[in-house]
Amino acid sequence: MGGLSRRSMLKAAAGTAALGGLWAQGAAPAQAQAHASGDIHRRIVDDARMVWKRMPKSWQEGPFLANGFLGVQFYAGTRPNVLKVMLSHSRVQDQRGQWEAGIGYSRLPIGYLTLTFAGAITAVDWRLDLYNAELGGTITTTQGSVRFSALVHNDQDLLLVSLSGVAAADWGFTPLKSATTRTIRKPPEYTANPDPKLASAGAVEYCEQPLHAGGGYTTAWRERTIGTRRLLAATVAYGFPEPTHTAEAISRVHRASATNPDLLVAGHRRWWNAFYRRSFVSVPDKRIQRFYWIQLYKTACATRAHGPVVAEWGPWFPEVGNSWTAVWWNLNVQVTYPIVNSSNPPELDAVTETFRRDHANLELSVPPAYRDGDTYALSHPGDWRLRPGGTRAVGIPGPATKNDQTGNLIWGLHNVWLAYRHSMDVRVLRDVLYPTLAKALNYYRHFLAAGPDGRLHLPMTRSPEYADAADCTYDLSLIRWAARTLVESAAKLRIDDPRVPAWREIGEKLVPYHQDPVQGVLIGDGVPLAESHRHFSHLLWLYPLREKLWDRPGDRDVMRRTFAHWSGIQDKWHGYSFAAASSMSSVMDAPEEALRYLKIFLDGTVVADTQLTPNTMYREGANLAIESPITAAQSIVDMLLQGDHGVLKVFPSVSSAWPDASFESLRAEGAFLVDASHRNGATEWVRVHSEAGEPLTLRHGIPGDIDVRDARGRRLPWRAEGPGTISVPLGRGGTAVVTRRGARPELEPRDVPGDRETPAWGLDQEVR
């Protein structure tokens, strides 16, 4: 990430007047500006700000900042007069590929800055201003108080901290041991990287951390005083294989220190302010509404299209209980990224870009006997370059071998399919999805064999984290989706591919899922779900693949039975289990159940020693896992908007507890941007803008007679397709507005009424 260019500095200068000079504004004045301006986007995001009235003790409670690369967390140090500022970076990893990724390509600890006061810290009053991605407030000590603001710059790997006040305080840095924190399968010959070296270059202090494999990473920082304010600039730079990290870190801090901080802050805020205008969501339950906006903030903190795909910690480092040191591809990445499509910031989609850039590394996960140049697979854990490390290939189907991880790649590519369907960018289909999915399906083609029934059967594989089974439902659902998608994609791309007949045969002859009259779909042939299972692997066909549809009456029974059995035993569920159950309920027309499952998770319920924490992070045991809260945000979208199999559904699963709801610019499959209002228990109006000219079938839900007009108020032709459902011939760039006949509602997003007295997320109360 480069330095601030002269052009960027000039553009940012226009925003400096609002900062009041040399950046000390903090969150409270921004809040006042939001209410004074009447800007609904700013007002609703400001309402979601997180608040700390007491000192957080760990990452599970503290505020967090990041830009997809540099991550920062704030919480109490080991002594009562110390604030700890934990630093981490999503690119900082080991490079010893002789061991599996969780060890050899492990994310590495960096260290933490400390702000040490002369007196003990007695109180804090902090606000995390989401709209500006800035933490601000006061720290009170027995020797006085200090006001501070902190941010991680969006365009540069810089932590900036502004301090003012009477309390004396000194900055320091403590490096952490540069070694994997994972203990599972850790080889006895593993050694930590060399000890760090502390030094200085003029006014810049730094800590250089070399790696055994070459290159390394360096933390650098400098504080300067301007008037009554102290300004800290700190960074982490990583270089591999060339040792460029130290020079880059020092140079970056020098450049930041020579730049007016108001210019830096103005550019940072401009990106974040624009980000929040990508879409809009408001619901009556303000705790849920605030949670939703915090997850968008967290997602934008955690990922960028040009950066690493999200690992289990995001860009942060959990100081205790941190065994998930790499990228988890058997569910975690897959459930994290759908919200990027629906909430409409495509610049956060690292999954598509990862497969575009590093697909050749997928051959490393194929067992050597099957590496034919036309076969891909994806093991886990892996690193952000899709490398498994060591000899950790996927399993070989069959009873005598270790046979797990076979479906990871196809499920990961379903995220690319969603990116394509939400954008209709043919380049994603042609250049990324089609060639990679064909090679992913090829792995299964080695093992599919016709049985006496004439069906294609699959030898034993593993349903993730549950059981081995022949004709494993998890794998069959992914094979069936891949075969159908490849056939349809070849037609869309007008490719005369000789493999199409084989793909079509797989789709037609693949064995149906094995079922039980009570349990519905089984794990596989003769293998029932006999106990609670946190993964919903055997339900992918229901969600997110949507192979079976509630709109088809013949599908409902098997959907209902399978879901009821899985959801009937929840003692081993984790956070993403409740999020998946909410989304599945939404697609099965059960809005009250959808909301109930979401609330169980958001209420901090402890199940199997997992819990949503006060800052909306999520712990499993003591470990940080980023995916569950973010996928719960997608569950909220699934209540408001669904688009699949050619039907766009508005407010398809809104609970009766939500008489009002409003959204704007949510993105749906078909590259539709949708705005809508729900008032007094009924849909009031819907506006659909088509970016690609795809066929539009709209289930609008507006009672009574309707008008359909374009963006200029002219009538559009439409045809009824069923109760509350119409088709509209809408070309590329066209807009359709659907209202009750004769009504003229205000077609603007609104912050709907609700309970605003619930505490903010964070630590908003003295005693909790």
UniProtKB/TrEMBL annotation:
Transmembrane segments: none annotated. SUPFAM superfamilies: Six-hairpin glycosidases. Residues 730-768 are annotated as: Disordered. Pfam families: Glyco_hydro_95_cat (PF22124). Residues 314-640 form the Glycosyl hydrolase family 95 catalytic domain. Residues 743-758 have a biased composition (Basic and acidic residues). This is Glycosyl hydrolase family 95 catalytic domain-containing protein.
